[in-house]
UniProtKB/TrEMBL annotation:
SMART domains: TPR. It comes from the Bacteria. This is Tetratricopeptide repeat protein. It comes from Glacieibacterium arshaanense. TPR repeats lie at residues 35-68, 69-102. Pfam families: TPR_16. Residues 1-20 form the signal peptide.
Amino acid sequence: MMFRNLFVAVLLTSAMGASAATSTGVSGKPVSALSQSFEAKGQAALAKGQPTAAIDAFETALAVDPANANAYIGIARAYEAQGLTGKAVRYWGDALQLDPNDIAALEGQGLALVARGANARANVNLQRIKTLCKTDCAAATRLQTAMTEAAAKAAKAPVTASAEPAKPAAAKN
């Protein structure tokens, strides 16, 4: 317990010292250097195909600096790598809370929504991307393509009958 408290104290002291050397994150707010270093570790873990380690690093980056939108994006990508699109949608949303105009986050959340079958919600993101991109936009094209492919796949899917027997209608007296 004592070592844990010591670790937290060292971490917070380091964060305060590192906050002098900050850069601007996607939200336009300064992000501490310590948070950025944990973010980089998360990106490296993702590149190595280690989403669990990546999530740990990104969560540490957020503990140091909750304004690090890139850490939320990293967690979303890690959850997608694990096939957990529902959790990914949440973290894409957290990144969008910090910067509602982040096209990469809008696209990522839109693609995760499509994967979950929520094309109507993904369409809201698509319209937002089109509004932000005054000209042709690759993010809008990718999201539109994913939505079109998902709709085509759903149209081709066979309709299956319910395994439950039909219930008789209640007699009226």
